[in-house]
Amino acid sequence: MNRFVRTLAVIGMLLFALPVAASAAGDNAPQPEQQPAETTSQTPSPSAEPGTSVTTGDGTPATVIDDRDVEGILGKNVRSSAGEDMGQIIDVIVNRDGQVRAAVIDFGGFLGVGSRKIAVDWHALSFPADAVIDHVILNLTRDQVRLAPEYRSGEPLVVLGAATAVQPKPDTPAQPENLMPEK
Predict the structure, then answer these.
(1) Quick one: which of 133, 58, 136, 82 has its CA closest to 104?
(2) Which end of the chain is more exposed for a tag (fewer CB within 10 A), N or C?
(3) Which domains does the chain have, with CATH numbers?
(4) Within 13 Å and on the Cβ side, how many CA atoms surround 135?
(5) For 24-38, what is each residue's pLDDT tens digit?
(6) Of 155, 159, 165, which Cα lies nearest the Cα of 105?
(7) Are 58 and 44 within 8 A, CB to CB?
(8) pTM of the model
(9) At 2, is the pLDDT very low, low, confident or very high (cuts 50, 70, 90)?
């Protein structure tokens, strides 16, 4: 009886593997060559000097930037000025004018458990002076960040380490300095 069960198991595995092997063999069949559609070059000439304004093949204005002068920062590690690991930059917050206001740091936790998102003022960040940006420096202590309120999308934004006070909206009437009546 035991040999019979083993034989059935082997036959079942072969029946299961046969269609998979046949479809894999069909994937290796030669395919007719497809010619790419002809397009005009949209990129500026590689010989253009960095910092110069150029026009792409379709007339769109562009600027050439030396790739050694720029770097993406999303996902970069953040360290305090004392070298403490502070987390990673996961988002950048801009205002309606397009000015960068804050960076969102995924702070604390271990393997994504117990981490919090903290918004820090853009001016509280600094970047290494050498050519490679392998990390970003946050000019706040770990305790300051640990005590900060968590960033939640769609809720009022609390930016840690704001360098300037928030100015009242222009349509807000000015309040008199002394509201107490004189005696």
Answers:
(1) 136
(2) C
(3) 77-146 (2.30.30.240)
(4) 13
(5) 555 555 555 555 444
(6) 159
(7) no
(8) 0.58
(9) low
